[in-house]
Design goal:
The complex is a heterotrimer of chains A (256), B (305) and C (916).
Chain A: H1 2-39, H2 53-59, H3 65-69, E1 76-77, E2 89-90, H4 105-109, E3 129-132, H5 147-151, E4 159-164, E5 173-178, H6 188-192, E6 200-203, H7 205-208, E7 216-217, H8 248-251
Antiparallel strand pairs in A: 1-2, 3-6, 4-5
Chain B: H1 5-34, E1 38-39, E2 42-43, E3 45-48, E4 51-54, E5 58-61, H2 63-71, H3 78-94, H4 98-103, H5 106-120, H6 132-147, H7 157-166, H8 172-186, H9 190-195, H10 197-206, E6 211-215, H11 225-229, H12 238-244, H13 257-261, E7 267-271, H14 282-297
Antiparallel strand pairs in B: 1-2, 3-4, 4-5, 6-7
Helix pairs in contact in B: 2-6, 5-8, 6-10, 7-8
Chain C: H1 4-21, H2 27-37, E1 42-47, E2 56-62, E3 65-71, E4 103-107, E5 110-111, E6 116-119, H3 122-140, E7 145-149, H4 155-168, E8 174-176, H5 179-193, H6 204-207, E9 210-214, H7 218-221, H8 223-235, E10 241-246, E11 258-261, H9 267-280, H10 286-292, E12 293-297, H11 318-321, E13 326-328, H12 331-336, E14 344-346, E15 357-359, H13 361-368, H14 373-380, H15 388-403, E16 409-413, H16 415-418, H17 423-437, E17 446-449, H18 456-464, H19 479-489, H20 504-513, E18 518-522, H21 526-529, H22 533-542, E19 546-551, H23 556-560, E20 563-566, E21 575-578, E22 583-587, H24 600-608, H25 613-616, E23 620-621, E24 634-635, H26 639-644, H27 653-658, H28 661-664, H29 671-674, H30 680-685, H31 691-703, H32 713-717, E25 724-725, E26 761-766, E27 769-777, E28 782-786, E29 802-807, H33 823-828, E30 833-836, H34 838-843, E31 851-856, E32 859-866, E33 877-881, E34 909-915
Helix pairs in contact in C: 4-18, 4-24, 4-31, 5-17, 9-14, 9-15, 9-17, 14-15, 20-22
Chain lengths: 256, 305, 916
Amino acid sequence: MNSISLKARRKFLKGITQNVAIASTGGLIWASLLQKEARAMPSAMRPPGALDEKDFNAKCIKCGQCVTACPYDTLKLANTSDQTPIGTPYFIARDIPCYMCPDIPCMKACPTGALTPKLENIEDARMGLAVIDIENCLSWLGLRCEICHRECPVKDSAITVEHHPRKLSKHAMFVPLVHSDACTGCGICEKACPTDEAAIKIVHPELVQGSVGEHYRLGWENEGAITQEFTPEKMRSDTSVDVEPGGLDYLNTGDL
Amino acid sequence: MPDTLSGKLGVWKYLILRRITQLSTLLLFFGSAHWAWNYNELPVISGNLSSSLLLGFIPLADPFAVLQILATQNTLLSEVLTGTLIVLAFYFIAGGRVWCSWVCPINMVSDLASRVRRKLNIQNAVQISRRFRYTILVLALVLSAITGVAAFEWISPISIFHREVIFGLGSGWAILLGIFIFDAFILKDGWCGHLCPLGAFYSIVGRFSLLRIKFDAPTCTHCVECVTVCPEPQVLDFKQATSKGYISAGECTNCARCIGVCPENTLKFDLKPWIKKQELTINNQQNLTTKTDNLNETDHGRKIA
Amino acid sequence: MLDINRREFLKTSVAASAAATVGIPVSSVQASAAKEAEKDWQWDKSVCRFCGTGCGIMVATKEGRIVATKGDPDAPVNRGLNCIKGYFNGKIMYGKDRLTKPLLRMTDGKFDKQGKFVAVSWDRAFDEMEKQFKKTYNEKGPAGISIMGSGQYTIPEGYTAAKLMKAGFRSNNIDPNARHCMASAVVGFIQTFGIDEPSGNYDDIEYTDTVVTWGANMAECHPILWARVSDRKLADEDHVKLINLTTCSNQTSDIADLEIVFKPGTDLAIWNYIAREIVKRDAVNHDFVNKHCVFATGPYDIGYGMRPTSKYAYDAEKDIQAKELEIVLDADEAIAQRKKAGMIVKQENTKVPVKHWLIQFEEFKRGVEPYTLDFVANLSKADADESLESYKNKLVQLADAYIEQSRKVVSFWTMGMNQHYRGSWVNEQAYMVHLLLGKQAMPGNGAFSLTGQPSACGTAREVGTFAHRLPADLVVNNPKHRAFSEGLWKLPAKTLNPKVGTHIMKILRGLEDGEIGFTWVQVNNPFQASANANHWIKAAREMDNFVVCSDPYPTVSAKVADLILPTSMIYEKWGLYGNAERRTQGWRQQVNAPGDARTDVWQMLEFSKRFQLKDVWGEKSIPGLKSDGFEDGKLPDVLTEAKAMGYSPEDTLYDVLFAHEENKKVVWPDPAVAKGHANSTSDWLGDGWFPEKALFNEYRQFGVGHAHDLADFDTYMRDDVRGLKWPVIDGKETEWRFNEEYDSYVAKGSGFDFYGPALKSLKSGDLDGITNKESTSLAHKAKIFFRPYAAPPEQPDANYDLWFSTGRVLEHWHTGTMTRRVPELHRAVPTALLWMHPDDAANRKLARNDIVWIESRRGKIKAVLETQGRNRPPKGYTFAPFFDEGVFVNKICIDMTCPMSKETDFKKAAVKVYKA
């Protein structure tokens, strides 16, 4: 009787241990797969209104309703062999760019908010950012191309043309410049670019965009003028010597 | 198995019905996406099994997928939450794992694997507890919370296959092949009965759902035909079924295979509130106890008659 | 089903979370959110903390913390731009190891020079400081104490320090680190013009056709000015010429038309070659020269500013040190000085190196005659890979650029010419060329000395925190200047000490030989910044002395000290700086200093309360004092006269020098100027006056009417003022000095007037010495000096076979005290590299990124080797910046100085480099 129940208990414990072992090994592999996917550098162009990559990946339920809603067949769902996280919608601008429907049907189709309904105006969409390869851009080489500028749906704010002198001849260059404050990342420029490999490409802004430090403002843009009624911080009266002062580790150790 | 066609049809009735619902669900999604099937110019059903919009205004959503997203500490739009509630309500009525046997496209693969297995008389290569799926269910939620992405949704063969059929994406078939091989040659009912956390989730829903397999104990001859065909044979606990009057385990998929094969009409669909409690004789009880205990112990690697 | 409230709630929370998490926020959302966050920022104008360019910045404060800065768009110097150091002004105060408590070396609660640093109260700190100060002061007199100050002092700080030392303690032993930086420029100015600081201003850049940089890597060290120069070049690319003369190819060469890489020290010969060309081609502007200039020269045998004794030298140092007494002329030097090679020359004029006399133009011509193209090209060509013909061609082009009549020329220089064993000479040679051509003191024409520290001009030079100076170009060894200062300061006659004090190198040497027993380091890191550092660190730690260091951060100097005083930084106090173009700029206090850190002014004023007149104004012994009207070796007791003036012997220096009746009238709070800003100095003093303003306005009286006119304190604080270039006459600044069109000090009708009053009466002679002892007045004239080439005393030899020079990189400033606390700057340039020619590296079997030893006669240090990148030294030459205390380059640099200016030559050491 005792030996039987002991045996049963041993079997039971063995079973539990095995299950726990399988669960934890499997779980670790599973988790590492997910971590890798979830932290992968964003590379795909997302539909308008997509949250930032991390939140988008969390919220997208991979239902494809945005894909169905897109009248241009721009959007695709990523499959197992794609670089993009599986099942999520993306587009390849060089194939079919986003034509910026004013009613944003893809965003409206999204049931979860991964494409945020906060986006009211398609021109506020930030799907990506156009980046020009100035070594291979025909306009930057001096040719009169500027197709991207002319094709841009938010021309003259997202893409402008500046006139630079050309060192090699007496002809001015018409060089296109992209402005991130207005570029929606629709990719029409990339689609339209006439070079073999597009010299203007939509990329994920995180891959190319920096940010000026929070501690600095541009003097010629920022309006902050001298404050006339300054409110200073109250004078402190803490003069106790009990507080651990800075710098002691360095001062009291090591040679000179 | 009856020899006559009508007899066979009787046995196959539910199987045929299930295939029809499974295929037509797929077809509806596919048709809406590819042939623009519509109702009042709105797609009949857009999206896929993860989340969809029926007739342009009824949202539907996979409650387990939604639960995983919520576990990532993200808020969701009310549309998908409403869809979740609608779906939950449906399975609350129709039986939790009706999803598995009537809707999920994987079911066709696992049924096929089951059949091949029976034909070729294949033994299990590994042994895993059927409770293991609950571990995976918990793991899916925990990993969602840790990694910030819906853990199961990122690897779910169901979603991958369904998406790839509807959106024509290619490599989904490989996943079905994988499941088929696993189920046929490695572990009986391996995916659906042991691993799938979605099935596990619906099993929990199934504990409370209304549509049940009624068990008319006095008519039962203990021929165990039902146990032989049942993909989740542990649910056929005659002792409990006798006391409750119906198959009470959440893991029952309401596939109705047992109804088809039962020579005595002991098993029937019925709604829980209408099922009366059976009175049991001591004799009956003892009989049943022995048989079901045996059955339960020989569940794995059981010889098929 | 969800009830409607819950749904609404979810909807709004979704919206809120979406706005918070959208990576690239919807543009309008972004803009308004940013605006909202900046709503309660308080902006004020201020100045960049770093170099001598003097860029204006705007500072934003929120809840007692600097939250942001921006370049001041209204500042004429920088028009809203900053370099990468300026970009981080807002972060320099927030390093993790900021000092917040006075720290005293103690064992068992008592001061112990060998003890560990322990936090103490300010009272305890001052008690010990007073005790140690008085011990030295009573033993050694005013000559035994010293302050090592700074060109980073604000004007009120420098003035407080100078007055406390000179009028209070009667000691001239105060000298700034600016000594290391532009003392040679000062000698050049004073000897040439009789008054300090440039005649031109930065607008010269926009007016000129030619910018010649001499030993100035402006691209890295004056980045904002270089942006202006580059813009000038781009505006007229074919006509505007940039010429970079350097010993090491650098970033400044990148857009230059001509790069001349010369051997260290041979700039002396190149300038003379240009002068010879001017004479040969008869390009001298005779009209200008005859009217406004005279010719002069001085002795050559003036030594190299090293110790005259080998007593303290390491064995390895002795051969070079011996050259302080006599040298053997090498072949080139012999030609350059018209003497015989191999001749032994005793250095007989080391005591009076500044002596000079008038010569005739013919003598000047004789002086420059040996500097032919062949001679100078052979002497100065540094790059072994360059052909002599190509190099000669460049020298000719250089001479052409200066001489071309219609071409305007600005010569800029910094440490390459100032930190030079003949720094004063080479500065004078720049004026020599410009004056010969008449290209000086007019828009777009002039020799322009740039400075390295934010107030090298404004404080060190104008206030006169030097061992020999008083405010506004006055000097201590001039009885009239002392009398004038004593009058202004209301001191009894002969309070001021007539003996020139110890310059900064001599203070450090004084610690070593025991002459200095007390030193106070302020706004300075001399133990890292001074050459031959091993000596001075040992002296401070092992000799019987007391070193006080006021610093916001634990620097090498703090670590060497016995007492550390935690100190406020730039935006934690009121202040004014003066930049290299004579522009004085002021700012208000924006935030409070952390913990117990206090302003330098407060520290000095508090310390002055501990001295009564009877402690300091009695008879004092000054060894070596010899001056008319003074008993040899003694300062007289002036207490009797002080009593007659109404002072009591018990009055404190605080009462007499600082918080006197006049100054107490300058009350704090001062709402009209403060506009709400606090003043920690006033608050901590607590006696109701405004020290920074009172002291500035007191100081200002020195210059008014003496061509050093500053506006009053309130003017500089006005919203519409972004600094003013002195002399400020009737509220109007002076753009070009000595030029009648712009400078109201110029005698009417003269056109040009070099009115500087110093050294304007000279004896005359020939190139070899004085022949006529009768003095001639040179009022209103500038001097054109002939100065010969002299060879550097330490040169590469068989053992130490490479040149070594130190300097800066754009990212870090000085000893890195502030910039290395900015994580981003530290990340960008974490450590100092040793730059070397790739062939030199290969010959030593070294590769890029190897860790190497750099060894000189004075010590050795480790650094990482670099053979490419921003500096491209010629073969035989190496460079490492000095910002990194981990690569302590001053342990290997030689402490020779220009004998006239006492400015150290950090640019010409001989080293060997081998694998570590």
